[in-house]
Amino acid sequence: MATQHSRSAARLMMAPAVILLLGWMLVPLTMTLYFSFKKYLPLRGGDLGWVGFENYVRFVSSSAFWPAVQATLVIVGGVLLITVVLGILLAMLLDQPMWGQGVVRILVIAPFFVMPTVSALVWKNMFMDPVNGLLAHLWRFFGAEPISWLSEASMTSIIMIVSWQWLPFATLILLTAIQSLDSEQLEAAEMDGASPLNRFWHIILPHLSRAITIVILIQTIFLLSIFAEIFVTTGGAFGTRTLTYLIFQRVLESQNVGLGSAGGVYAIILANIVAIFLMRIVGKNLDA
Questions:
Q1: Which domain holds residue 201?
Q2: 246 domain residue, yes or no
Q3: pTM of the shown model
């Protein structure tokens, strides 16, 4: 058992890392709060003084605010649905003995290590180009007219691109959970005459509930700040402007740091609301 002296020494050794981490988080947050109450236009007069809650009112009353929130939630929901469903199917497939199983697993996980900008560029130019893209050639092969994905099906395109990036992460977590399942339960259910669907619904899926909630929680935290894929592909046009992209436009394109900082505070509030909601779900599943 640790003594009081050893616990004090441990706290002392951890203090620099904790202080650095707190500074890494608190300094940007403090600066964001500070600028959100000021009218700060770097290229149009600089610091024009305090404006109180004017930036908050202007940002939330903007005609682009609620569509941006809606686009953000649609992308997050669509990506979560695809990655969880396909992740379960892929994890079950990869758990089966096959030739070259290790190589197949590496290939499935590989897209997660591709940079978002590179991934978006590949999808934009190689797959979704309406003239020379692979999907365009596939459409023509079946006698159909190619689709201009990024303009005619922009939201679907973004969801597809982001899902391709995050599917390996979900598959890896779910595969680990499946491998921890006691095979004797499945064998006993099979001997009792349970169909594959019943075994999946009553044994495998309940066993994966914790892993699924962890996947949803982690992915949601990152997906709420999605930016690079939209910047590279649609530039926020065709209804794909998320809350993060709207903040980018206010800060860099409009050169209004105060208004963008107020948007950043709203983004933090939205992320915390979603995180608290998901943590309650995760907590219930982990306590089950």
A1: 53-287
A2: yes
A3: 0.82
